[in-house]
Amino acid sequence: MDRGTSDARDTGRAPLFEYVVSSSVVAAVAVHAAVAVPGVLRVEPGLTGLVGSVVRTARQRIKGLEPAPTEGARVEFVRADTVRVEVDVVISGQDQATAVGHALQRAVAGAVSEATGLTVAEVGVSVLDIIWD
Hints:
This protein is an alpha+beta fold and 133 residues long. The protein has a single domain (2-6, 22-131), classed as Cation efflux protein, cytoplasmic domain (Alpha-Beta Plaits, 2-Layer Sandwich). Helix content is 37%, strand content 32%. Helix 1 packs across helix 3 (97-116). It is globular. It starts with a strand and ends with a strand.
């Protein structure tokens, strides 16, 4: 989980506020970016992601929250300001898997950096299935 402060720290004054970015927020941003990439049909959790997703969703629903979709993305904080993201996708057979994977890496890294201010060290892409339309 990343903890940061406002830009007031650069002026030598006390921070105006503190923000916290959790791995589920980063995963939601990654999923949102991934599904917008041409050639990606859907983001789909593997077995490990499915178990974690069920637990997280149940916990949030008990609290009365509507969870953002994070299934199919996993996030690991390398340092407080740096993450590794893994995304599991199903792609169209009409597109080159390599091209879709590279576009997906760029889109996820850019969206996570822009939305959270975190540095993205790596975006791993797993193609779980290819569907021929």
